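Deliverable D2.4 — example input (structure tokens):
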């Protein structure tokens, strides 16, 4: 089993943090996105969507999409639980993880992919107005999330979950659009400092 990875991209980082929290170590293969290694015939055979990460099994079959890969390992290694326990908690973690994906993670991604000149050959068509709209919405999302974190330590409730992992990667990826969290979102900043103290943060 091996994981096709990229140290600079946020989606592969989600899986690396998840595995680190589980104490799971598997071999990785670095794939250069900017050099279009995801678009080669060999890689496309592993993932027709030409995206990272990809988990390749011993029989040569592959699994892609970061949350799907995390769910696979959650079933194999249920402790510590990162996707909740029981129907209600699992549903709430799923809800918060989706919110972090749609209202935070993808806002950053679209703002970057549609406004950065370096992405013009990879993001076709590149729509600057769409990138700016997502950047503007991101400000609303950060304010909203700061309010949510006023009374709890973690995104989805009382414990660290995949929702925190998705938010960690989204906030970290904001560097590519020149945005940092600061005094204007004190609860989010407190949360981020706590997350950065976890050993998995540097995965």
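Example output (designed residues):
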């Amino acid at each position: 089993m091996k994981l096709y990875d990229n140290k600079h991209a946020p989606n592969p980082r989600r899986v690396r943090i998840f595995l680190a929290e589980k104490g799971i170590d598997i071999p990785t293969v670095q794939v250069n996105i900017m050099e279009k290694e995801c678009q080669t015939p060999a890689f496309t055979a592993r993932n027709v969507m030409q995206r990272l990460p990809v988990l390749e099994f011993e029989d040569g079959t592959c699994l892609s999409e970061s949350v799907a890969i995390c769910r696979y390992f959650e079933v194999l290694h249920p402790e510590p639980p990162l996707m909740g326990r029981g129907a209600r908690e699992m549903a709430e973690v799923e809800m918060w993880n989706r919110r972090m994906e749609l209202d935070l993670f993808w806002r950053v991604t679209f703002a970057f992919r549609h406004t950065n000149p370096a992405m013009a050959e990879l993001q076709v068509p590149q729509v600057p107005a769409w990138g700016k709209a997502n950047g503007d919405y991101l400000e609303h999302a950060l304010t909203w999330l700061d309010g949510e974190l006023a009374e709890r330590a973690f995104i989805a409730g009382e414990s660290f979950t995949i929702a925190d992992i998705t938010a960690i990667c989204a906030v970290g990826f904001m560097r590519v659009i020149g945005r940092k969290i600061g005094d204007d979102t004190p609860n989010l900043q407190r949360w981020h400092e706590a997350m950065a103290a976890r050993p998995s943060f540097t995965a």
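The mean pLDDT is 97.
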